[in-house]
């Protein structure tokens, strides 16, 4: 995969062969044995400057594990992360601190991601205390006021406790907290899925305004394809820890090349599908467990196009231009 932008500049964020394995203990009879769970497996992705990359896939496919690994909240089991073309060494405290300041997260559950006993000002100020220790209190308070104005809450919220606020207000505070240290990239993990439908559009519009005003890049994780269509420039589809398809959002979701993406798109309500499969695809069989070791394609057991060559895991290959799929028998892009 090409890790440079069309203008020759390095992308803002790049991951190469990024993997994350968790070791757990499973009970077999009276004994417990260590088992490796491969949550993220050899993921390649790039995020350009000012670009929004969507990550989609069913629950348990590894989206959140990927996000936490990209944030250095989890130590990668393999592969590398680059910021602005420079490899990041998580063991180097100075590098890790610089990276964490540049890459911030908006969490899925606004109620669980803040301390309900803290005031709004304390919540937004917290990353400044950790990452901008040179700032005095007056400078921190000024930044807090500015960030609250940026998310349309205002100075009057500074002294309020988080426990008395709505989900939409708390998510705006979470966004303000993420913006406090002026990051270059936001990782948004299902940022509207816990909100009422009436509030979701407001938060999505706020993120769009922030992106335009600041020129921010984003990794936007979602299971809602209609939201991904609205927000994302490109999309990457995950299945069992692997990226199985990636490309421009409109092209991938109108003309999916990988059979899993076809099934995912076909599961949308009929009116939401534009140019993609009209009949719903029902996947047969169960996916292999994340601890199952196999050299075969991860989708082989559920794929209606499976052949003998699918005993080998396919690499992401070009379907057309910037549209890639990890499939030995991809459908035509339709372009």
UniProtKB/TrEMBL annotation:
Residues 24-265 form the ABC transporter domain. The keyword Zinc does not apply. It is found in: Cell inner membrane. Keywords: ATP-binding, Nucleotide-binding, Transport. Its main location: membrane. Coiled coil: none annotated. CDD domains: ABC_NikE_OppD_transporters (cd03257). GO terms for cellular component: plasma membrane. It is a peripheral membrane protein. GO terms for biological process: peptide transport; transmembrane transport. The keyword Cell membrane does not apply. InterPro entries: AAA+_ATPase, ABC_transp_ATP-bind, ABC_transporter-like_ATP-bd, ABC_transporter-like_CS, Oligopep_ABC_C, P-loop_NTPase. Pfam families: ABC_tran, oligo_HPY. GO terms for molecular function: ATP binding; ATP hydrolysis activity. PROSITE patterns: ABC_TRANSPORTER_1 (PS00211), ABC_TRANSPORTER_2 (PS50893). Belongs to the ABC transporter superfamily. NCBIfam families: oligo_HPY. PANTHER family: D,D-DIPEPTIDE TRANSPORT ATP-BINDING PROTEIN DDPF-RELATED (PTHR43776:SF7), TRANSPORT ATP-BINDING PROTEIN (PTHR43776). This is ATP-binding cassette domain-containing protein. The lineage of its organism: Bacteria, Pseudomonadati, Pseudomonadota, Alphaproteobacteria, Hyphomicrobiales.
């Amino acid at each position: 995969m090409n890790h440079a932008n069309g203008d020759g500049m390095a992308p803002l964020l790049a991951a190469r062969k990024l993997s994350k394995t968790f070791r757990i203990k499973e009970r077999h009879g009276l004994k417990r044995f260590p088992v490796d769970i491969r949550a993220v497996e050899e993921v390649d992705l790039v995020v350009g400057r000012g670009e929004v990359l969507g990550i989609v896939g069913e629950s348990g496919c590894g989206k959140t594990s990927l996000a936490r690994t990209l944030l250095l909240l989890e130590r990668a089991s393999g592969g590398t992360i680059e910021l602005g073309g420079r490899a990041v060494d998580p063991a180097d405290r100075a590098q890790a601190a610089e990276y964490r300041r540049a890459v911030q997260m908006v969490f899925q559950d606004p109620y669980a991601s803040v301390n309900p006993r803290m005031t709004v000002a304390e919540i937004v100020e917290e990353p400044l205390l950790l990452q901008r220790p040179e700032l005095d209190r007056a400078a921190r308070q000024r930044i807090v006021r500015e960030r609250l104005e940026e998310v349309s809450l205002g100075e009057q919220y500074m002294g309020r406790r988080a426990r008395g606020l709505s989900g939409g207000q708390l998510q705006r505070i979470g966004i303000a907290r993420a913006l406090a240290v002026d990051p270059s990239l936001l990782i948004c993990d299902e940022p509207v899925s816990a909100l009422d439908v009436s509030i979701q559009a407001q938060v999505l519009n706020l993120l769009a305004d922030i992106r335009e005003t600041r020129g921010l890049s984003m990794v936007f994780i979602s299971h809602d394809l209609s939201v991904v269509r609205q927000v994302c420039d490109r999309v990457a589809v995950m299945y069992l820890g692997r990226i199985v398809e990636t490309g421009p959002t409109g092209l991938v979701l109108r003309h999916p090349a990988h059979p899993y993406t076809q099934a995912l798109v076909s599961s949308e309500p009929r009116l939401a599908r534009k140019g993609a499969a009209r009949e719903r695809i029902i996947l047969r069989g169960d996916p292999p467990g994340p601890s199952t070791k196999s050299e075969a394609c991860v989708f082989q057991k559920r794929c209606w196009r499976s052949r003998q060559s699918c005993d080998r895991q396919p690499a992401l290959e070009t379907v057309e231009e910037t549209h890639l799929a990890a499939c030995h028998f991809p459908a035509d892009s339709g372009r």
